Amino acid sequence: MGRRKLVAGNWKMNGMKSHLAEIEAIGRIAAERPGVEVGIFLPATLIMAAAEGKGGAFIGAQDCHMNVNGAHTGCLSADMLAEAGAEYVIVGHSERREDQGESNADVAAKALAARTAGLKVILCVGESLDVRDAGNAEAVVCEQLLASLPEGAAADWLAIAYEPIWAIGTGRIPTMDAVASMHAALRAALASRIGAQESDAMRILYGGSMNGDNAAELMAIPDVDGGLVGGASLTAAKFGPVIAAAG
Ligand code: PGA
Q1: Domains in the chain, start-ordered, CATH in brackets?
Q2: Which of 58, 78, 108, 114 places its Cα 20 to 30 Å from the Cα of 135?
């Protein structure tokens, strides 16, 4: 146990140079909370400039290619992102799994590429509303996790984010019991693959409509080790209370 909370802001396709002051303000809040690891996952165009004024936060990217280089127009390798100043990358976000048709195997390959480039990784999993309503959420999400898990998965470079797709950007969240049960199931699934010790050390974040009002309750659940936060991470005023809720 003793997992340090990780609070990650996912800016998605939001953010221009005019938002650098906001990023700096988040970095100052993060510097006041050394017990919490705070990251801002930005559009690639902002990473280099944001890395200059990141304060106590780290800067992350939202995706990377699984190859080091080559004929992949429009894509960015993990090495490129690391050189720009990213320390982490998100892989397997449901918006990419859906919009870009990324498979579990793609996600595992991207995670491994990121690791090879020296980046840390947040790997996302989560169920659709149909799956939740059918009562299969835990089985489906654990299966997705094991199929997306890269070789050599270890707590010092990989964190998991559980994000129910129906909770993303909707203002709806599962019950606290459902979150607790899912996170415990994910930790058990991890243990079956990487062993109990590594599984105990690995952070499992919750994501999907986390905000300053619900973050404290969510992060008080024993197996919830932080949050992946979209809308409520876009300003220091909204993100500050989420960071504070983590400790
Ligand atoms: P949300 O997004 O906080 O706006 O629901 C979370 C995410 O998609 O990572």
Answers
A1: 6-245 (3.20.20.70)
A2: 108
